[in-house]
Specification:
The chain is mainly β. The strands form four sheets. Strands 1, 9, 12, 13, 15 and 16 form a six-stranded mixed sheet that branches. Strands 3-4-5-8-7 form a five-stranded mixed barrel. The radius of gyration is 18 Å and the shape is globular.
Length: about 220
């Protein structure tokens, strides 16, 4: 077993953050029409300009669209955010955005950065791979009022007898003690695997569930 040092890359979300995804980037115009004709909902990367306006989105299939109705603002200029986006097509190269929900997508941190490794269980509803991310939809047993915290721990990199380099990453999840398990809340997160494209041949993601430790993989 051997470990490697990874490049820092760009961090899309704080390493420890709230898992609630209902937060939206602010909209400069009030829109009382909640009807979204032919709306598409999917995970995207949203880019802001120097004035902190959301100007374009990058889909997971590699397609980039400009935002026709540029009313959405963020808290940082020239930044990339991972979001759940509700939009309709405005033209072949642009879209109209109706909602942007922030999705946690923190860069993994070395396991030595953590003083504790909380592995409170979650329900895994689905996990799927795209070019730049491992995406997951999970269920949290919660009251809906407490802040669940999570991050990704880069635990090790192993090399097989055939030379396959696998980086092992685990989901760190901390559930507040005062949060009773009243109902299941569905949330999303994305693991940015593109930072490992030149450092490993595959990723092994460990998620701790009520049925035990589950592993999900991706090969570059």
């Amino acid at each position: 077993m051997r470990k490697h040092k990874r490049n820092k890359g760009r961090q899309l979300w704080p390493a420890v953050c709230c898992l609630l995804v209902v937060t939206t980037l602010s909209c400069a115009e009030d829109d009382n029409n909640n009807s979204y004709p032919s709306a598409i909902t999917e995970l995207v990367e949203v880019h802001t300009n120097s004035e902190m306006m959301a100007t374009s989105v990058l889909l997971d299939n590699g397609t980039t669209y400009t935002i026709e109705n540029t009313y959405f603002t963020a808290d940082r200029p020239d930044t990339t955010y991972r979001c759940m986006c509700v939009y309709t097509m405005a033209s072949e190269t642009s879209i109209n955005v109706y909602q942007l929900g922030l999705i946690p997508a923190p860069l993994p941190r070395p396991c030595t950065d953590f003083t504790t490794h909380p592995h409170d269980p979650v329900k895994v509803e689905s996990v799927w791979n795209v070019t730049r991310y491992i995406n997951a939809r999970i269920g949290l047993l919660t009251t809906g009022t407490a802040t669940h915290k999570f991050s990704f721990s880069e635990d090790s990199t192993t090399t097989s007898d055939t030379g396959l380099r696998t980086t092992h990453i685990s989901l760190q999840h901390q559930q507040p003690e005062n949060d009773s398990q009243s109902y299941t809340q569905t949330v999303y997160f994305s693991l940015p695997v593109y930072v490992y494209a030149d450092l490993a041949d595959s990723i092994d993601l460990a998620i701790f569930t009520y049925d035990g430790e589950q592993h999900y993989g991706l090969k570059f």
